[in-house]
Design a protein that fits this description.
The protein is mainly alpha-helical. Helices cover 47% and strands 4% of the residues. It is flat. Residues 154-198 are annotated as: Disordered.
């Protein structure tokens, strides 16, 4: 992940310049950008968000390398998702004013937004990597910030990430899964289950979070992919432990949907990213397993 990003996509220069021109064209348009809206979407949100502040995120489009034609549609869909995510986060910022404790915005809005952006950025990397050199380090642009006074420079929220009217949503992954489980994958799965159990300890009052086992659903893992697969299976385990700890630490915070919005939702996004990395690692030298995303969602057991 330390390699420098390739040169910007020359084919998108005009597009990026247009977004920059919109961001600099006046205070009204800048207000729209901060709200995560394009100028033609109306001014209501920009005005409303002056109270709780606005969320702004780093630009991603300008950091992309040349995009292969075969990946363009999927990249555009995920860029549109990044834009939609900012809009939804800014709306939630308004809808939840006064809720939770001092860390509510970080825990329930900024944290989940970052996790969603990581997943979308990983999908962009994967889409490009199928037909060209995979860009590395896009996760560095996942974290967003709250500008409490409603002011900050225009970034990705200017609408530059939305691609040519593409609908939001990641493209379905092609390929069929191989036969189940090598011995080493099963062993790693046991570690994941054990870690989840450890995370549940002492969590009786708040409940416990349990997730589907991933290792047992994997095909035979090529030797060249084993280390990366193991690392990501370990991350899945750590994510469950952290979520169970957070479940205990935030008891009583937020409204009725706090656990779903601030813990289960972000956990699913993290798991999607890790599971996609596993599928990508296997797919480099063998048939890429499909459908693993169905194992991302976790449940709360009281």
């Amino acid at each position: 992940m330390s390699r420098a990003l390739p040169k910007y996509n020359k084919r998108r220069v005009g597009f990026i310049g247009g977004a920059a021109a919109v961001a600099l064209s006046g205070t009204v348009i800048a207000g729209f950008a901060l709200a995560g809206e394009t100028p033609d979407s109306g001014g209501t949100n920009a005005r409303t968000l002056a109270g709780p502040g606005t969320i702004t995120c780093p630009d991603v489009t300008g950091q992309l390398p040349d995009i292969p034609a075969s990946a363009q549609a999927e990249v555009d869909r995920n860029l549109a998702q990044l834009n939609t995510q900012i809009q939804e986060a800014n709306k939630r910022l308004v809808d939840t004013v006064g809720q939770g404790g001092p860390n509510f915005v970080q825990n329930a809005i900024l944290g989940p937004l970052e996790d969603k952006r990581v997943a979308a950025l990983n999908r962009i990397e994967t889409a490009i990597g199928r037909a060209a050199e995979k860009p590395e380090g896009l996760e560095a642009f996942a974290a967003c910030q709250l500008n409490a006074d409603g002011g900050a420079g225009a970034g990705e929220a200017a609408g530059g990430e939305a691609g040519a009217g593409e609908e939001a949503g990641a493209g379905a992954e092609a390929g069929a899964g191989g036969e189940a489980g090598a011995g080493e994958a099963a062993g790693t799965g046991a570690g994941e289950d054990a870690g989840a159990g450890a995370g549940e300890a002492g969590n009786a009052g708040a409940g416990t979070i349990t997730c589907p086992d991933v290792a047992s659903q994997l095909p035979a893992i090529p030797a060249s992919a084993q280390a990366e697969v193991d690392r990501n299976l370990g991350q899945l385990n750590t994510q469950i432990e952290e979520a169970n700890k957070r479940l205990v630490d935030t008891v009583g915070q937020g409204g009725p949907n706090f656990v779903q919005n601030a813990i289960l939702g972000p956990l699913e996004d993290k798991r999607v990213a890790a599971i996609n990395r596993i599928a990508t690692a296997i797919g480099r030298t063998a048939e890429r397993p499909a459908g693993l995303d169905s194992l991302a969602a976790c449940t709360l057991t009281k």
